Amino acid sequence: MQYTEIMVRYGELSTKGKNRRNFIDRLGFNVRQALHDFPALVIKAHRDRMHIQLNGEDATPVMARLSQVFGIQNFSPSIRVERDVEKVKEVAAQMLAEKYHEGLTFKINTRRSDHNFQYDTNELNDMLGGHILKNVSGIKVKMKAPDITLRVEVRVNGIYLSYETFDGAGGLPVGTAGKAVLMLSGGIDSPVAGYLAMKRGVDIEMVHFFSPPYTSEQALNKAKELTAKLTPYVGKIQFIAVPFTEIQETIKEKVPSGYLMTLQRRFMLRLSELIARKRNGLAIFNGEALGQVASQTLESMAAINDVTTMPVLRPVVSMDKNEIIKIAQDIDTFDLSIQPFEDCCTVFAPPAPKTKPKIDKARYYEERLDVNGLIERALAGIEVSEIKIGDEFMHGKQEAFADLL
Ligand code: ATP
Ligand code: MG
Questions:
Q1: Where are the alpha helices (DSSP H) in 162-234?
Q2: Mean pLDDT, to the nearest integer, of 298-319?
Q3: Ligand 1 centroid, distance to 188 Cα (angstroms)
Q4: Quick one: average pLDDT of 71-91?
Q5: Which of 287, 194, 295 lies closest to 239 in space, CA to CA?
Q6: Separation of CA 149 and ligand 2 centre (Å)
Q7: Contact 299, 355 (CB under 8 A)
Q8: Residue 33 in marked binding region
Q9: How far, in Å, CA of 197 to CA of 403, rounded?
Q10: Are 129 and 149 in contact (CB under 8 A)?
Q11: Does residue 186 contact residue 223 with C-beta atoms inside 8 Å?
Q12: 3-class SS at 172?
């Protein structure tokens, strides 16, 4: 049967008191963004529910998009029928006849938001149930745990029938928790960190450091493609590419190799903070997980974090690699992340990075460098682009690459 609308139930935002209106408005905005290429839809975000009128559009691709929007608890594709009991009976029987298989059980669950309707909920349950029993042969009523619960909602503008409810993505509407930057590499962890940040309502902008000619155009494109994978949750994401070559070359030339990595990270963090501040970001997210590699010991985090007072948030800090990979697979970033285009850190990775760098030493080595000049020049070379749902950057080279394996 052709669904006429999707009824959307809000998630956690229902507990937010007077901020509720902001949350609903933002969710409405995000849903419109996510569905922008379905112009026939009419989206109405009311206080208790959101209604997406399909106007002839197929419900399936719309629901696929919807399932990625944070702030939605669940949704049901529904059929709107005129407020005429005979019509409702007919459609209800048709819906169940389509689902019928041997032994199928059902019940009717009617609700009225319009209490002036001529029948009450018990009368409607009886009438519709009786009609279905008569017209769908073999079907049985079961009040406790039936196979199908047909929900009937009587509203002023029509009667809505649905029997399926799908889980939404949960979380909070992106944008309701403020803005931040995400340090996005081409690896497995940072896209997952970005996903988790967005899930809690944070509007993120990507900061990616690249080092031409040591890193290829493909490495940059991979980071953009990873960003594109995260756009369905928000519609679009700003991608900020920061040239990092001069900084890495200078550090390599002037600093003992044990501190290369610590100093590179300190520069990354400084730059991320400056970019965040300029763009009204309140925090920096990254994909660090405790103990994963040399740069991710507590000593190392302390020596790196020394350069900023802005909150540095690490959504995957306590996860095992397998747990992170599981999420990466769920959000479809894993296969892309494991493609081996070297990013700037791999290229300049020292053979034996210190796992317990000292803050004092990091500061001491940095005195040999023109920190401000290096930062200024990197900032001057920033390129910002907007990445939208469906954008592609790898241009089929993934397959070309697969052939080489
Ligand atoms: P990832 O899988 O996210 O690359 P990782 O385990 O490989 O993480 P590192 O390479 O040590 O860890 O990087 C730690 C974090 O530093 C990353 O999660 C990311 O947030 C940030 N980072 C590393 N390289 C870059 C880069 N080129 N551009 C932006 N951020 C980076
Ligand atoms: Mg990495």
A1: 189-199, 217-230
A2: 97
A3: 9
A4: 96
A5: 194
A6: 48
A7: yes
A8: no
A9: 35
A10: no
A11: yes
A12: strand
Q: Hey, how many other C-beta atoms are within 10 angstroms of the C-beta on 294?
A: 19
Which residues make Cβ contacts (< 8 Å) with residue 40, sequence separation at least 6? 54, 55, 56, 57
Which amino acid is residue 233, in one-letter code? Y
pLDDT value at 16 more than 70: no
Q: Give per-residue pLDDT as tens, 361-386.
A: 999 999 999 999 999 999 999 999 99
Radius of gyration over every alpha carbon of the chain, rounded to an integer in angstroms: 27
The string of pLDDT tens digits covering residues 243-299 is 999 999 999 999 999 999 999 999 999 999 999 999 999 999 999 999 877 778 999
- Structure-token pair, residue 106: 């059902």
Q: Strands 49-53 and 42-45: what pairing? A: antiparallel
**Residue 153 contacts residue 159 (beta carbons within 8 Å):** yes
**Percentage with pLDDT > 70 across the chain:** 96
| C-alpha dihedral sign at 390, 391, 396, 401 | negative
CB contact at 8 A, 338 and 203? no
Look up residue 263 and give its two tokens.
């100093």
Classify each residue of 358-396 as buried b or exposed e, where b means 16 or more C-beta atoms within 10 Å of its C-beta: ebebbeebbeebebeebeeebeeeeeeeebebebebbee
Identify any residues that bridge with 312 across adjacent strands, giving them in sequence order: 284
Q: From the CB of residue 109, how many other CB atoms can be counted at a distance below 10 Å?
A: 13
- Residue 287, both tokens: 């994909």
Average pLDDT of the chain to the nearest whole number: 92
Site to substitute for ligand 1 among 183, 270, 334, most atoms within 8 A of C-beta: 183
First-to-last C-alpha distance (Å) of the chain: 46
310: Cβ contacts below 8 Å, ≥ 6 apart: 273, 276, 277, 282, 283, 284
- Work out the angle at residue 379's Cα, subtended by the Cα atoms of residues 378 and 385, and round it to the nearest 5 degrees: 110
The pair of structure tokens assigned to 36 is: 């922008």
Q: How many CB atoms lie within 10 A of CB 55?
A: 12
* Structural element, H or E, at residue 67: none
Ligand 1 pocket test target in 185, 268, 318 with most atoms within 8 Å of CB: 185
The structure tokens listed for 159 are 């009667």
- Name residues whose C-beta falls within 8 Å of residue 278's C-beta, 6 or more positions apart in sequence: none
Coil, strand or helix at 325? helix
Let me know: does 152 contact 124? Beta carbons within 8 Å. Answer: yes
State yes or no: 208 annotated in a binding site.
yes
